[in-house]
Write a structure and sequence with these properties.
The chain is of the alpha/beta class. It is built from 28 helices and 21 strands. Strands 9, 10, 11, 12, 13, 14, 15 and 16 form an 8-stranded mixed β-sheet that branches. The protein has a 6-stranded parallel β-sheet with strand order 3-2-6-7-1-8, with helices on both faces. Strand 14 and strand 15 form a beta hairpin. The radius of gyration is 28 Å and the shape is globular. The N and C termini lie far apart (about 80 Å). Bound molecules: adenosine-5'-triphosphate and magnesium ion. Magnesium ion (MG) binds next to helix 3. Belongs to the helicase family. UvrD subfamily. It holds the Pfam family UvrD-helicase. Keywords: ATP-binding, DNA-binding, Helicase, Hydrolase, Isomerase, Nucleotide-binding.
Length: about 750
């Protein structure tokens, strides 16, 4: 323990060892906030006789929670498994599982991710014959989630016009549908948990008596409901230790309220406000860039950051001609970093929007460099995985109508739209789930639906005593999914993914310890829990305590399904591999890497065009850029491209205004403003400062002849840019693009399938 403490600077030490009172640690990126929070947990357990069971810590992602647990295990000789460290959603899920009856949920309630939620809403609108042009499903979803995040049920929302009133009715109908099907969306997890604790006094007092120490990382991104939830759990006596950075508040669009920081200071009567000003992460030029940039924002709470690490290298800036070429440049740079001995997992490629990753992924794939994407299309969101999960959901809770509809006719079993309409009518008429309504359907439809029910029952029966991964295997065969994809021409990838699901189940079981040992500290009660009342559920049967290990409150299958919905999107099968890290800037929050690429720094992309429409939008983009820059320890690359293909359109971009907000002396420009080409497609190498040779031209040469009839060297005219000469052609067919020199308009990259060009 002594060692842990003497690795801290005086301010950090003061924060770690504060008395058990509410405290706010306000500090910039890389100043050790997360380290302080983790060390404080260790300190409380080690020297203050606080039981691990008396601590609740909230992190922003599952990944961060895992890291925190790993660090704690390294610091303390205790078993951290089962500690209450997780995201708001994860912790609420856990409380609801333990007290599902009091929360009014079925034991096997299932979690809807945002895609599931949207399709549930579409299904609702359809069943009520609502015009989805007038009431767009997506808008309704935002409406519902916003209301829930403010803690409001449908009857509490004030409707000020007819349109609004209709939304409120639909909100209520949506909640009824979810309740019938035993499913909860993300916002519901929190709201339901909040309501549970606020209405159920014994339960609330139990947990208030238990969690004497509540610690929250990334406090600046809490929303109003999360804030209220914390306040409820803290009661009058518990100590809340919040760490945050107002300059890194980047979730306003999802309801985060940076005002919670000052509200916290006031309402929790914070006496200990500590600022940390020493940055331990980044070299000088990187930190200077971050500081200079963020100084352009107004209304900051005000703090400084300094480093002892020296200037280090300048920030490298690169201008690409196209997104393809930007990707090639990233590949070449990464290759040379790797050959210099940098570890792949210490190199991150960040982008503002998910759509940018495709081109980069393609280039990495072609170059054979292992990479890992966070966010983006999550493993659990792929179609074949969704199908498999739906079967598992039905085995766990057959009344989940979304799951039912997803697979009732997949693989095809001759159950058509007509049969389903009949079934839906019967379900409505009798107030039943689709599954339960099957016996009410007569005729041929009834027979084939009945066969499906039998199949699900058989799957449940066959797997009831099997370990989770065996369960998944049996399901894959019995459901017909594997045989189905075997007959599909491009099914091999999908089968591979389905096999990864078996591995994911295996990994999950070993990590969560289902059926293995009981965590050591979950045995005898320690002082933090001593005075807490015993918990008896409303029907008097259940004596549950939050100390109960998870298997007691959740079957491995239920737990795995929750995990599939809540997981931050890592493809587990790739875990552990030394791979380049790809992610959006949002998901890079809290992380750090030796080298970072921030790509696509163009007006409209970063800052994002939507930000111009919203008040404070630009400042939020700037904070996002601040987060991105401060992820880097030693080397930072910034890149932008003259043209970019996004959402099927070629965009001609100006470089981001953020370049003008960075200190010139910290930047090193790697490329001349316009790439020089000779007319036949090979780059003149001397034109490049120290940038590597562009790979785009190698591709171009191999495809130059499949060019939709255009030839290099040909003169063309374009409505907007006038006359020009084709200097290069890349790709072919649907991906065919030409680089054209338009004289005073400069070099442009045009999509030959879209651009209106004429021969001259
Ligand atoms: P962010 O705002 O990005 O979440 P943070 O304030 O949480 O950053 P940490 O991630 O805790 O910062 O710390 C940044 C880096 O600095 C980590 O690698 C951490 O181990 C290191 N660090 C923190 N404090 C010290 C210290 N006193 N001595 C040496 N290294 C430190
Ligand atoms: Mg942190």
């Amino acid at each position: 323990m002594q060692n842990l403490l003497h690795n801290l600077n005086p301010e950090q030490l003061a924060a770690v060892t504060l008395p058990a009172q509410n405290a706010l640690i306000l500090a910039g990126a890389g100043s050790g906030k997360t380290r302080v929070l983790t060390t404080r947990i260790a300190w409380l357990i080690q020297t203050q006789q606080v039981s691990p069971a008396g601590i609740l810590a909230v992190t922003f992602t599952n990944k961060a929670a895992k890291e925190m647990l790993a660090r704690l295990s390294a610091m303390l000789p205790i078993n951290t498994r089962g500690m209450w460290i997780g995201t708001f959603h994860g912790l609420c899920n856990r409380l609801l599982r333990a007290h599902y009856r009091d929360a009014g949920l079925p034991q096997t309630f299932q979690i809807l991710d945002s895609a599931d939620q949207l399709s549930a809403i579409k299904r609702l609108l359809k069943s009520l014959n609502v015009d989805d042009e007038k009431y767009p499903p997506r808008n309704l979803m935002y409406f519902i989630n916003n209301a829930k995040e403010e803690g409001l049920r449908a009857h509490e929302v004030e409707a000020y016009d007819d349109f609004n009133r209709r939304f409120v009715e639909l909100y209520q109908a949506y909640d009824d549908q979810c309740q019938r099907e035993g499913v909860v969306d993300f916002a519901e997890l929190l709201l339901r948990c909040y309501e549970l604790l606020s209405r159920n006094q014994p339960l609330r007092e139990h947990y208030q008596g238990r969690f004497r120490h509540i610690l929250v990382d990334e406090f600046q991104d809490t929303n109003n409901l999360q804030y209220k939830w914390l306040k409820l759990l803290a009661g009058d006596h518990n100590a809340v230790f919040a760490v945050g950075d107002d300059d890194q508040s980047i979730y306003a669009f999802r309801g985060a309220n940076v005002g919670n920081m000052s509200a916290f200071e006031r309402e929790f009567r914070v006496q200990n406000l500590i600022k940390l000003e020493q940055n331990y992460r980044s070299h000088g030029h990187i930190l200077d860039s971050a500081n200079t940039l963020i100084a352009n924002n107004r209304n900051r709470l005000g703090k400084n950051l300094r480093t002892d690490a020296g200037h280090g290298e300048q920030v490298r800036v690169y201008e690409a001609t196209s997104d393809l070429q930007e990707a090639q440049w990233i590949i070449e740079e990464s290759k040379s970093l790797i050959s210099e001995g940098w570890s792949r997992s210490e190199i991150a490629i960040l982008y503002r929007s998910n759509a940018q990753s495709r081109v980069i992924e393609h280039a990495l794939f072609t170059a054979g460099i292992p990479y890992r994407v966070y966010g983006g299309q999550r493993f659990f969101e792929r179609a074949e995985i969704k199908h498999a999960i739906a079967y598992l959901q039905l085995m766990d809770n057959p009344h989940n109508d979304s799951a039912f509809l997803r697979v009732v006719n997949f693989p095809a079993r001759g159950i058509g739209a007509r049969s389903l309409e009949q079934l839906q009518d019967a379900a409505r008429q009798h107030g039943l789930s689709l599954y339960a309504a099957v016996p009410h359907v007569a005729g041929k439809a009834g027979t084939s639906l009945g066969a499906f029910v039998k199949l699900v029952e058989a799957m449940r029966f066959e797997t009831q005593n099997l370990p989770l991964q065996e369960m998944v295997k049996v399901m894959l065969e019995m459901s017909g999914l594997i045989p189905h994809y075997q007959t599909e021409k491009e099914g091999a990838d999908r089968i591979e993914n389905l096999e990864q699901l078996v591995s994911a189940a295996m990994l999950f079981v070993s990590e969560e310890g289902f059926g293995i040992d009981t965590p050591a500290f979950l045995g005898p009660k320690t002082q933090a829990v001593a005075g807490a009342p015993l918990l008896v559920s409303e029907d008097g049967t259940e004596v549950l305590d939050a100390d109960a290990p998870l298997p007691a409150v959740m079957s491995p299958l239920s737990a795995f399904l929750s995990h599939a919905s809540l997981e931050a999107g890592d493809n587990q099968a790739q875990a552990g591999q030394d791979a380049l890290q790809l992610m959006t800037v949002h998901s890079a929050k809290g992380l750090e890497f030796e080298a970072v690429f921030i790509t696509g720094l163009e007006e409209g992309l970063f800052p994002h065009e939507n930000s111009a429409k919203e008040e404070g939008g630009l400042e939020e983009e700037r904070r996002l850029m601040y987060v991105a820059i401060t992820r880097a320890r030693k080397r930072l690359y910034l890149s932008f491209s003259q043209t970019r293909m996004l959402h099927g359109q070629t965009r001609y971009n100006m470089k981001s205004r953020f370049f003008d907000e960075l200190p010139e002396e910290s930047l090193k420009w790697l490329s001349p403003k316009v790439q020089q080409h000779n007319w036949f497609g090979s780059p003149r190498k001397s034109a490049w400062d120290d940038a590597p040779e562009s790979g785009a031209n190698t591709i171009a040469q191999s495809f130059a002849r499949k060019d939709l009839g255009w030839r290099i060297g040909e003169s063309v005219s374009h409505q907007r840019f006038g006359e020009g000469v084709i200097v290069n052609i890349e790709g072919s067919g649907a991906n065919c693009r030409a680089q054209i020199n338009f004289g005073k308009h400069g070099m442009k990259l045009l999509d030959l399938n879209v651009a209106k060009l004429e021969r001259v």
